[in-house]
Amino acid sequence: MLKGRPVRIEAVGAYVPPVILSNYDLEKMVDTSDEWIVERTGIRERHLVLPGMATSDLAVNAARSCLESAGIGPDEIDLIIVASASPDYAFPATACLVQNELSARSSAAFDMEIGCTGFIYALATGAQFVSSGMYDRVLVIGAETLSRLTNWKDRNTCVLFGDGAGAALLSPGEQGEGIVGIHLGADGSQADLLKLPAGFSRLPATHDTVDEGLHYIHMDGKAVFKFAVNIMDVAISKVLSQVGKEPKDIDLLIPHQANKRIIDSACQRFGIPKEKVMVNIHKYGNTSSASVPIALYEAIQEGRIRKGNLVILVAFGAGLSWGSIAVVW
Ligand code: ACO
């Protein structure tokens, strides 16, 4: 829970790169089918970066869309946080590259990496700075180019991921509105289920690590699926009880878009009807930290969020990690 000033989401933006890769395109690349992918995941197509594009390019576009919607200039941002599991570099931080590109000269900047839960953790972190009174405007961005970390010969993973970015601007709000509940969690004992094994201090890149494809995403899909179904229930329940609400009070659930079956399972468990759930996985696949802000952006564009609505953001991912945020819009 935030103890200080109320914090609201003042504006949201998003950007997806132009190239679209459909399931039919994937049928020509690996032994898979549109039918299998749609039935097992709900994904029909995903957007991918062009050669030469990197995560900060997507982040900058999402940031510009967010600032335009807020009607403010980059010089009014106090802090930029970029959540990403696929940064431009191990260092410098992608947030610094974004800060430079936006000319947000008076802004501090740092990155956060907590897999697909990144945006939720970053939003929670940004909210603390605003709530404490240290900063008035924090730009939180979830941006990913997982296509760069994907083994395009591995059908177990290459059908799942897509590229994109979403951004939210945090600022002080009125009592009773904005971010009213935050639940964050992690279980490092299951870290091995989802990781990019090589290229860092545990296993620096060598010819062998590259030959073995250890610089790509490795995932035990079945185990992550089981974890996800369970943890979505935990994360939603925890944040609801924190704010004294029940599943029937949710006006819109915006879940991480990893697998349509994981989302359906949570909705079934809580009796949340389809019209109260934001699903766009068919268009973008799993964009990791970008999935929740892109879905939030689209929900606003589609007029699905009104003032006073209770919106629940929820995600899970590598770590393993999870988090949920309750927002009164
Ligand atoms: N096309 C066709 N067949 C496939 C494909 C494919 N793309 N991928 C796997 N298969 C096959 C398997 O080889 C297996 O064949 P077998 O029975 O002959 O061995 C069969 O389909 C069933 O495979 P499962 O792994 O059991 O399929 P499942 O129904 O579990 O779906 C999936 C796999 C989609 C990966 C699912 O487990 C999943 O969504 N897991 C969660 C992933 C996730 O949410 N990750 C989120 C975090 S990501 C992050 O933080 C970056």
TrEMBL record:
List the record's Gene Ontology CC terms alphabetically. Answer: cytoplasm
> What PANTHER family does the record point to?
3-OXOACYL-[ACYL-CARRIER-PROTEIN] SYNTHASE 3, BETA-KETOACYL-[ACYL-CARRIER-PROTEIN] SYNTHASE III
What range does the record give for the signal peptide?
Answer: none
Gene label: fabH
The UniProt subunit note reads as follows:
Homodimer.
This chain's function reads: Catalyzes the condensation reaction of fatty acid synthesis by the addition to an acyl acceptor of two carbons from malonyl-ACP. Catalyzes the first condensation reaction which initiates fatty acid synthesis and may therefore play a role in governing the total rate of fatty acid production. Possesses both acetoacetyl-ACP synthase and acetyl transacylase activities. Its substrate specificity determines the biosynthesis of branched-chain and/or straight-chain of fatty acids.
Q: Which InterPro entries match?
A: ACP_syn_III_C, ACP_syn_III_N, FabH, Thiolase-like
Quote the catalytic residue positions. 116, 256, 286
Q: What is known of its domains?
A: The last Arg residue of the ACP-binding site is essential for the weak association between ACP/AcpP and FabH.
Q: What is this protein called?
A: Beta-ketoacyl-[acyl-carrier-protein] synthase III
Q: Where is the Beta-ketoacyl-[acyl-carrier-protein] synthase III N-terminal domain?
A: 110-188
Which superkingdom is the protein from?
A: Bacteria
Q: Extract the NCBIfam families matched here.
A: fabH, PRK09352.1
Q: Extract the ranges annotated as region (ACP-binding).
A: 257-261
Q: Where in the cell is it found?
A: Cytoplasm
Q: From the Swiss-Prot or TrEMBL record, what is one GO molecular function term?
A: 3-oxoacyl-[acyl-carrier-protein] synthase activity
Q: Which reaction does it catalyse?
A: (2S)-2-methylbutanoyl-CoA + malonyl-[ACP] + H(+) = (4S)-4-methyl-3-oxohexanoyl-[ACP] + CO2 + CoA; 2-methylpropanoyl-CoA + malonyl-[ACP] + H(+) = 4-methyl-3-oxopentanoyl-[ACP] + CO2 + CoA; 3-methylbutanoyl-CoA + malonyl-[ACP] + H(+) = 5-methyl-3-oxohexanoyl-[ACP] + CO2 + CoA; malonyl-[ACP] + acetyl-CoA + H(+) = 3-oxobutanoyl-[ACP] + CO2 + CoA
Q: What is its EC number?
A: 2.3.1.180
